[in-house]
Amino acid sequence: MSEWVLILGCSTGHGGATAKRLAKDGYGIIGFHLDRGEVKKEAELLKEEISKINDGKVFFWNINAASIDVMDEYIPKISEITNGQSIKLLLHSIAFGTTTNFFSDKPVTQKQMDMTVHVMGNSLLYWTQKLFNMQLLGEGSRILGLTSEGNYLAMDGYGPVSVAKVAMEAIIRQIGWELGRYGITANSLQAGITPTRALTKITDNWEDWIEKTKKRNPMRRTTTPGDIANTISLLLKQEADFINCSIIYCDGGEHRSGTF
Hints:
The chain is α/β, with parallel strands linked by helices. The protein has helices spanning about 15-25, 35-55, 70-80, 110-135, 160-180, 195-200, 205-215, 225-235; strands at about 5-10, 30-35, 60, 90, 140-145, 185-190, 245-250. Strands 3-2-1-4-5-6-7 form a seven-stranded parallel beta sheet, sandwiched between helices.
């Protein structure tokens, strides 16, 4: 079993919960986040907590992980940390993009679309290519990206993010198809509505979304970051080696229960 995992978007929400859970599983944690103010402090506290769990095997960098220059600078550092051994997991959990409509008083611009699709979609491809070329992905490595039902439902303000996530799903599917011969798998993980900081950025009606979700979810609650972290922990087990090119649902059946 590889010793290290790499999480893009590690400070809060699904990424933060996964970092903590996988540290408990014995993995070293390498994480990227881009935060300021109070959220930056939360990331620093999380790093300290993880360090106590896994005997200091944690590296957090507060820098833009979607930057190609950052990839080129930090991937050699990752190789030094792992002693050139392949990582077990590359998780894409970056939640940063434009939330606005295509047609409105302030319609989405080309610059905003390009940024959102790159950060929340295409950047996963470039990370995977560069890690693979550095032989940091190998037999048993997992590529995972977080998606949502907003990819096949039209939602107010969600258009740019939806496009980015659909692109990410296609990228993941293709990665798994091309790298499966090396024992490397790639899958999308679809969470249900989750009360995280990212949700508050999508809509001003996020509290209403949560209450409606509790009613329409078969299990009568929202998804938690812990649910996602637990699922990822399961997917890193050897028994999951043959799960590839798929969308895995961790939402209590929410995606089967109609719309808002």
